[in-house]
Amino acid sequence: MIRALLLSALVAGALSCGLPTYLPHLPRVVGGEDVRPNSWPWQVSLQFSYNGQWRHTCGGTLVAQNWVLTAAHCISSSRTYRVVVGRHSLSVDERGSLAVKVSKIVVHKDWNSSQLSKGNDIAMLKLASPVPLSDKIQLGCLPPAGKILPNNYTCYVTGWGRLQITAPTPQGPGKWTEGELLVVDYATCSRSDWWGSSVKTNMICAGGDGIISSCNGDSGGPLNCQKADGQWEVHGVVSFGSSLGCNYYHKPSVFTRVSNYIDWIHSVRTGC
Ligand SMILES: *[C@@H]1O[C@H](CO)[C@@H](O)[C@H](O)[C@H]1NC(C)=O
Ligand SMILES: *[C@@H]1O[C@H](CO)[C@@H](O)[C@H](O)[C@H]1NC(C)=O
């Protein structure tokens, strides 16, 4: 009986997601907010090997102990990658953080880097070994398939970089950031004075009010949106923005809409 109870407690722990041990300090304004260490424990750093050193290139989300969700545009087939989990600062080694090799990369088959506006900017990375969950390493929750957030819903981008327009450039050690973005619904975002036909229903827009929206976050990283019960869901993967600036009026940041790819994510994980 005790064994069975213990087992079910462990299973429940392993399956839970989106509930950080250290609650984030949510910023109300752009910049200057202190980000609480490890308050986004599903955020990972995707790094590639360059001249014998590992360089941060993109963010990602730990969606299972051995799978990371990121953007297709972060992946270059000629590079060797690793994923760092449980990290706050990229410049100092931290207890509780782990670096794991990537053993398999699955880029969505309909991704085409010269047709960004078609979307499908999504990829899954299989880790060489599953990472143990802890207070600093937790899973991100995926939304239910097809879930659409209403206009003006408040979400947060997190990461070490700035939102970038495709082809992320290798960066030096970064400082952790988070920023608030309001969801812009498809009807609004696809208007001709917004993104027009560059935005599809397989994407989610957020930001672009020209005032409060944040530039913070990483390509490939999560758009985190909290449910009424407190649990966080990852609704977007940072895909593209305006070359005019990351909070240009009526040009919100564009994310791959995760709720459109739930079946794909499942099929990649189960190898079907
Ligand atoms: C990607 O898009 C370009 C430009 O439209 C096209 O020429 C090319 O054939 C596409 N590649 C694939 C693999 O579909
Ligand atoms: C919500 O969005 C609409 C349309 O973009 C805007 O007019 C309105 O001011 C927003 N409301 C709030 C509370 O931000």
UniProtKB/TrEMBL annotation:
InterPro entries: Peptidase_S1_Elastase_sf, Peptidase_S1_PA, Peptidase_S1_PA_chymotrypsin, Peptidase_S1A, Trypsin_dom, TRYPSIN_HIS, TRYPSIN_SER. Residues 29-270 form the Peptidase S1 domain. One of its GO terms (molecular function) is serine-type endopeptidase activity. Its EC number is 3.4.21.71. CDD domains: Tryp_SPc. Keywords: Disulfide bond, Hydrolase, Protease, Secreted, Serine protease, Signal, Zymogen. GO terms for biological process: proteolysis. The keyword Signal applies. Residues 1-16 form the signal peptide. It is an enzyme of class 3 (hydrolase). PROSITE patterns: PROKAR_LIPOPROTEIN, TRYPSIN_DOM, TRYPSIN_HIS, TRYPSIN_SER. It comes from the Eukaryota. Its main location: secreted. This is pancreatic elastase II. It comes from Myotis lucifugus (Little brown bat).
